Known about the structure:
The complex is a heterodimer.
Chain A: H1 29-34, H2 39-45, H3 49-58, H4 71-76, E1 87-92, H5 102-108, H6 110-124, E2 128-133, H7 138-153, E3 169-174, H8 184-191, E4 215-219, H9 220-232, H10 234-240, E5 248-255, E6 261-266, E7 269-270, H11 271-278, E8 288-292, E9 301-302, E10 309-310, H12 312-317, E11 326-331, H13 336-350, H14 356-376, H15 379-392, H16 400-414, H17 416-430
Parallel strand pairs in A: 1-2, 1-4, 2-3, 5-11
Antiparallel strand pairs in A: 5-6, 7-10, 8-9, 8-11
Helix pairs in contact in A: 2-6, 2-9, 3-6, 5-6, 6-9, 9-10, 13-14, 13-16, 14-15, 14-16, 15-16
Chain B: H1 5-16, H2 27-38, H3 43-53, H4 57-64, E1 78-83, H5 86-90, H6 93-104, E2 117-122, E3 134-136, E4 139-141, H7 146-159
Parallel strand pairs in B: 1-2
Antiparallel strand pairs in B: 1-3, 3-4
Helix pairs in contact in B: 2-3, 3-4
Bound molecules: FE2/S2 (inorganic) cluster.
FE2/S2 (inorganic) cluster (FES) binds at residues 83, 85-88, 124-128, 131, 133 of chain B.
Amino acid sequence: MPKKLYNEPSPLETRVLSARFGLENSESLATYVANDGFKAFRKAREMKPEQIIEEVKTSALRGRGGAGFPTGLKWSFVPRSSPKPKYIVVNADESEPGTCKDRLLMEYDPHQMIEGILIAGLAMDSHKGYIYIRGEYRYLIDHMDRAIAEAYAQGYLGKNILGTGFDFDLYTHSGAGAYECGEETALLDSLEGKRGIPRMKPPFPAVAGVWACPTLLNNVETFSAIPVIIRDGGAAFAALGTPKNGGTRLLCISGHVNKPGVYEVPLGYPMLKFIEEIAGGIPGGKKLKAVVPGGSSCPILKADECDIPMDYDSLAKIGSMLGSGGMVVMDETTDMVKVALRIMRFYAHESCGWCIPCREGTTWLRKILQRFDDGGGRHEDVALLGELSKNMLGRTFCALGDAAAMPTISIVDKFADDFEKRLAAREMVAV
Amino acid sequence: MTFSPKLEEKFAKMLQAYPEGRKRSAVVPMLIYAQDEVGAVTPELIDEVARRCEVPPLQVDEVVGYYSMLHRKPMGKYHVQVCTNISCLLVGGMELYEHASKKLGIGHKQVTSDGQFSLEEVECMGACSWAPAVEINYDFYHHITPEKLDQLIDGLRKAH
Ligand code: FES
């Protein structure tokens, strides 16, 4: 049966990774194989590991989890000749607020990701992989377990895969509710059965990851992009995007738009066009006020900053990030004090408490913002919020401290008016 | 302690998934699957998971407080989780949470006196583009309005 999609696709999309979404039984191995599935694996089997990595480098694929690190380069850091076992770990702990795409990649096309993992296995000389899925996605863990069982039953996983002599075992691993575990070293600790506390780097996971063995860790979407890169060539994938920003990516748009959803577009797609034409614009003819470009950790953009192409470098140039692809649109009625407070409540809740600037910083920022929202704000609070946030930047083991600070800094800088309005309203009442 | 045959089978497979001497890796998944069956992470469950994963009970105990989905006291038969994070907030997530709280007569992480329902204000659950979103146990519900939530809850009450 054709699967009901969560949202209507848009004719303006470039569907590469999502090409099979909506096909009859799109999640089955048979559908995958009938629609180009496992051609890339067979091709990769004939290639040298260095050639596979070179192809990924040529594709200009960058990590789709958040940081946007060049994937081919990351792959080249794993010492494939190490005598230790090498592991592949998939980060399916999707939990960056605003992001809901990995869900679809696993739900509609699980074998595409599995093939990507196998190709990584060939390139790393790795024979074991784990898909770390957030606990809230239990239906997807079950779904992936079924897909994995199907692949084993038909010889696409296990011993001597498709008669090539290559062995690979793949397992799902359930999280149990912790945003912090999306950070790669915290995820590895969690995978080892511990609290997910970030590790000091170096050593990087490529060299000493899970169980102190070389580990390749990528996001669901990153692995899902590998088959098409190997099948059609890295250059073809790169050509879809802009220089150094290869391919397409799945963007999740939410908030004040008429057609929220997940849509696949080439890197470099114009942001305003995406909001207006793909997501149907803002309801009620209201004006755009702000955009979170790629998950709540990114500095927020003002409306007049949004006339830009969506690629990693263009966003970086204006001091923000493309992040995890979670784009949140806010119309002119949005109260940025409430937005800042909700974002900070989240980070304060999720801070693992390991680093003092993050633990104390998020707690105090939350308290100040809460007081402001409750009507007890002071003029000097606006500067205090900015100053406190800036003091967190770069002072923590992992990126959670920065992730909490960056949106806050951008909100108090760019939307100070919203805070002033609150203060003015209070003074009116006082008079 | 023993679990249902289905879960026992799952656990047997799970312990095989990790390399020699790395059974500790099964601690978190085992806790969460077992909690679904037992109802809460009880001291007996901690001991049992520790035994199966070949670690001291303390190493199991210490992870319980870290993971938000693990709890030492039973939640309701239907655990209603309402997301109020940013994407949901913008389209009525907070109002939805308050509505649920009024309707069920309980607050964050509380359980109704008949043990049927519990409520939790949760962080982003990966349904942002179909907000506001609710998860009841492990089932996702998208584009939820207060009316739809009433129907859902009333339906579950009747089913009981
Ligand atoms: S913000 Fe509510 S599901 Fe993502």
